[in-house]
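TICKET #2291
ISSUE: user wants both folds in one file
ATTACHMENT 1:
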Amino acid sequence: MAKAIRINRTGGPEVMEYVDVEVGEPGPGEARVRHAACGINYIDVYFRTGLYPQPLPAGLGMEGAGVVEAVGEGVTEVAVGDRVAYAGRPNGAYSEVRNMPSALLLRLPDAISFETGAAMMLQGLTVQYLFRRTVPLKRGDTILFHAAAGGVGLIASQWARALGVNMIGTAGSDEKAALAKAAGCSHVINYNTEDFVARVMEITNGDKVSVVYDSIGKDTFIKSLDCLRPLGTMVSFGNASGPVPDFSLAELSSRGSLFITRPTLFSYAARRADLEAMAADLFAVVASGDVKIAIHQTYKLADAAQAHIDLEARKTTGSSILVP
């Protein structure tokens, strides 16, 4: 038996239960991983609340790092004893041990700790596809990135600096703004005390930005469109404040033939070759020191509910992990 977090119904953090589970032997195409650390991400909240439906009862968590204990029939991607990290479904990373599809597991370089691996996979791979594939950024580009002091945001701030991209970030307090600025944001806007559209216009001398990366959703969506220059791209990749409201396509044409996309990591990493290439890019930028993973909150696995309380209250910065 192993300890894990399970939910039998959707709802608030109180629906998360710390229970014993039977793990068993890995099946064909699976590997059993003993976690050293598990990542916490806002998408976990979406599954817990039911915004993203899944069959119940269910586990939570899409990110972890640890050691392969056993492999099932036909597994070629990893071997027993390998240090591995992953980001992806099925949910269930909030656990001491689990069986995982081996096609999602990536060998973790020795230079990267388990804690860093667990904290960076989902967020780091997200930044990788946002910056390198959704809209391939180049030196001198100017972008707007919401929630710049969060886990994804701090990685994005550093990666943008390494690419020579001018990143305008938003954050909800002066303290968070300072974190994003230190990480590499060219400018940071406190959206609770400033109108971010007006500040973007001021910072860019009226030119606006070529790309907006928005994981906030409902509260920022329309105003984000106002920050884009003609032919700019709106990248909506999250719903922290709630789903994006219905809107008319005329909102895009009236602002200068804007583009919009709603990407997910799992579409970009669906092919094993793409996943390996994305991970290699992430591992390289972390190993070089250009991107440092800021783990600002560490919780015991049994305290996962408190982690969600803090996350939803926007009390967290950087990355958060659970330690079994």
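ATTACHMENT 2:
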Amino acid sequence: MRKLVLLALVGLGAQLVDGSLGMAYGVTSTTLLLAIGTNPAAASATVHLAEIGTTLASGASHWKFGNVDWGVVAKIGVPGSVGAFAGATFLSGLSTEAAGPVMAIILLTLGTYILVRFTLRGIRTDRLGSPLRKRFLGPLGLVAGFVDSTGGGGWGPVGTPAILASGRLEPRKTIGSIDTSEFLIAVSASIGFIIGIGSEGVNFTWVAALLIGGLIAAPIAAWLVRHIPPRVLGSAVGGVIILTNTRTLLRSDWIDASDGVRWIFYVFIYAIWAAALTYSIRRHLAERVTESPEDEGGSTPDAGKAAAPTAT
């Protein structure tokens, strides 16, 4: 019973992260499952199946709060499901250790760009509303779905930063659309894994426990992403990408850094991330203060004009 409660808390924590930042459900839940002593193979299988329910709940919550662009969901989700099914069915036995560091470098570059741009400049508005085309979203979905199923996660870490970097979709809708489309990827990947390796080793009680925690967290995360300022949200997402992929690189065969070296990097990243978030929050508050007097000043004359005829 104690383990089931812990699993439910794992699902809650992982969905709060994923639903708020558009990524890292797989990374967060698998890491926490391993931390409580779960077998690595069972953890991976359990997470993929639990994602079917959590992504459905997350997508519904994001839709309710107006965080979903259905055109983006269709354009990226369909090719993503194809990539996820293919990767799970035909390539689940292929080691991705060599490709992992390369992908980590790409994502680390994107994460650094997002952190710097959103922290220093805020959200780019000159391209907001411009359509995201199939020739961009199609290949992106295919690659992200493939990476997600063969690498044990990657739909959010690949899709979210790429769309954010385009500057065409505001952060909350980027996160909501990625989370919603992930339902298709979770279903396709799960079907592929069942066909490829069967359901051996999967504890469906654990799946249910993770799902319950995720269902509780989904609406909370969707509400958070709607109310967090885009500038702050972008800084938060950038930090998650940098930290996650730095960890991947330091643990890869390319570097294989010692624990002491890793923690030096982690402390440095946490310090930079905290400073970036602090700066973003302060800039956002300063911009709100600057805008308020203009709004009040503009409304006073109108109010006076409207009041004059009534007095006569």
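RESOLUTION: both attachments delivered.
EXTRA DETAIL ON ATTACHMENT 2: The longest helix spans residues 259-311.
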